[in-house]
Each structure stands twice: as structure tokens, then as C-alpha cells.
Specification:
This protein is of the alpha/beta class. Strands 12-11-13-1-14-15-2-16 form an eight-stranded mixed β-sheet, sandwiched between helices. Strands 3, 4, 5, 6, 7 and 10 form a six-stranded antiparallel β-sheet that branches. Helix 3 packs across helix 12, helix 10 runs parallel beside helix 12 and helix 11 runs antiparallel to helix 12. The mean pLDDT is about 95.
Length: about 400
Amino acid sequence: MDYHLWDKLAEDNETKIVYLIIDGVGDLAVPERGLSAMQAANTPNLDHLAARSATGMLEIVGPGITPGSGPGHLSLFGYDPLEYVVGRGVLAALGTEFPLQHADVPARVNFATIDEQGNVVDRRAGRISNETNERLGEKIRRNVDMEIEGVQLFFEKVKEHRALLVLRGEGLSGDLADTDPQETGVPPLEPRGISPPAGRTAGIVQQFVDQVREVLTDEPRANMILLRGFDLYETYPSITERFKLRGLSIAGYPMYRGVTKLIGMDLHPVVGNVAGRFDALEAEYGDGYDFYFLHAKQADARGEDGDFEAKVQVLEDVDAFVPKLTALEPDVLVVTGDHSTPCALKYHSWHPVPVILNSRYARVDDVDRYDEYSCTRGSLGLRPGVHLMGLALAHAGRLAKYGA
């Protein structure tokens, strides 16, 4: 299917669409419980919503493909993740509202701990405080060359162990491999151009990293940096241009704020916990927007920790706020995730995620539980994640008839 067909058929009206994305929602049944975290959680509000909706499963990228959060969200927003490929650095920069310019090359930074042999012992430096992050950033900017071979370098704080590096200058390439080895007990990888034109950019990054390592050598924990998600910044068509939607993004983490800003959504300045985000949506719901994205992160984090009971608790916490959404009576209410994060794997996985699509035009099925096993019986079936936006637009009366 040509997913740009939606662009041609999209119509503007007064209907409203709400997405609740529970990050990493999908799981696997564990032998000791015989249940997944979703099955074990007491979620009466989500279950009641499922019983009044069409349900199914979304394969976010493709069979057997484990999605990152960037392609996972782009897929849900109707952007084919195989066509729209963006590095994590771009999303991190946009999420912190760094003023990216065309052809900048951003990368996500982790402060990390290396031992005397130069091997990584902690990829997140013990999740240092925001205050330590800010101090280290200032230390780097004060003692490291922030212009190398005519290229400007910007080093900005993000949160805890995360920071941002942006390169700005002529002839740069974003085609660089990560320096984060994604494991401990091995040294950081050297900056490397994936294609020949990226060699100069890799050399500039290497000079920067070498200086940073020297400057941080006296730090007890954050004595090295690891870089991920290099990319050359280019603009994307917005959801207003494509789907005639005016979107509001209510998310806390820069990654998710970045992906929504990339497609032209406004960012709500909300901070704090998930309760604050539900309150923000309730307060902002009205004439200004017709598409609302509310992001709940912690199910993913607890899945990566392998903490089954904590993930159950997160799902129950989110469920308690669902009546705030249903009370708004949006024309379309979607509940799903951008990927599965099973506790047994402690990482993202390729498993499809369960979806609820609530609308007065939905074909309600006999599923009355919101979990990854019950929703396999739903009327939406198993379909690509990128289909979700088309379904949401249609159920909101926002797609014109195709053909005569």
C-alpha cells in the first residue's frame, strides 16, 4: 500500500483523536506466574474500554523486527519507519528544543564509567544526578575545544546520565556508527564512518572524545562518554501537511518529545509523573488541537529492569487515570504501545502490541480484556503499526472516499 494515499484523502473537521501510548506495554507470560504482566495487572478501566471497542495486534515495523522507540512512534503516527529513518540524536535534540539547523549532526550522549583498563563497567555512570550532569557539561565546555577543523560543537545537558552533542559545519555526514558497545566489560568503540564521506566527521568526533576522556579522568563515575544515534538533520512533512491534524504532544522524555516535534506537533511544557500528563491533557482538551498524544513511559523502564511486579504496578497506575480520557468523549480513543518490552528479555522485542480503538463507528468484538493474549482475537486482527493512523482518521470521519 502507498501510505501517502492518506495524505490525498485527509479532510479537516471538528473531530478529535486521542492516543494513549503505554511505552513497552507488551510482555510474555512467565513460567512462575503463568501470566504476562498485562494479564496479572488489575486494569478494570482498560478492560471495560476494550469491551466497548475494536481490538487487535500491531506489528510495529515488520515480522521479527525489534523496533526502537523512534521508528515505533513514527509507525503509530502513520510514517512508514522504513521510509522515514531518523537517528536518535535528532530526536534527542528536538526533544530538548535545541535549535537544530539543516545539516546539523546530533548524537545522543551517555556519561559512562570505564575502569583502569578502559573497559566499560557502567553504561549510565550510576544514573548520575541532573546537577552532576550540568557540572560535567560545563567542565567539558570549559576545557575541551568546541571548534575542531572549522566545525562547531555544542554539548548540552539532557537529564541524569544523558546529554547531547551537536556538530555544525560544512561537509558533515551523519553516517557514523555508535561508540556505545551496548555491553559492559569491553572498551568503547571508536568513532567510525559507515560510508567513505563520513571519515572526516568521524575524525572530528574522535578528537572531541579523546579530549573529553582526558578532562573526565578524575571523575569517580562519569569518566567517559558514549555516543549513539548520529544522523544528519532533515525536516519531515508535518501531520498538519499530511493529515490536516493539529497535534499536541504530552510527554516527559526528550526522545518522545523529539519524535513528535519532528512531525510538527506542539510540545506541552508538562513535567512530572504520569498523573500530571493526564491532568495536562484534560486541561488542554478543547478548540486548539484535534490530535492529542499522551505518553506513559514507566512500563518500558520496568520491563528493561526485568521487574515483573513493578511493571504490573505501572499498568495498574495508568489504568486508574483512564476515566479521565473516556470522560472527554473523544471521537477516537486509541490505547497501544510503541513496542513490547518483556520482563523476561529486559529489552525491546519483536512481539506485536495490543491495541484498543474506541469509536462509535468501531466494530466492537468480544474481547473484554486489554492484554497481548486476549487482543489476538480482536476484530482488527494482526496488522502493520503504520495502519493505525489510517484507521484513526477513518473512524474520525477524516478520510474522503477513494475513487469514483
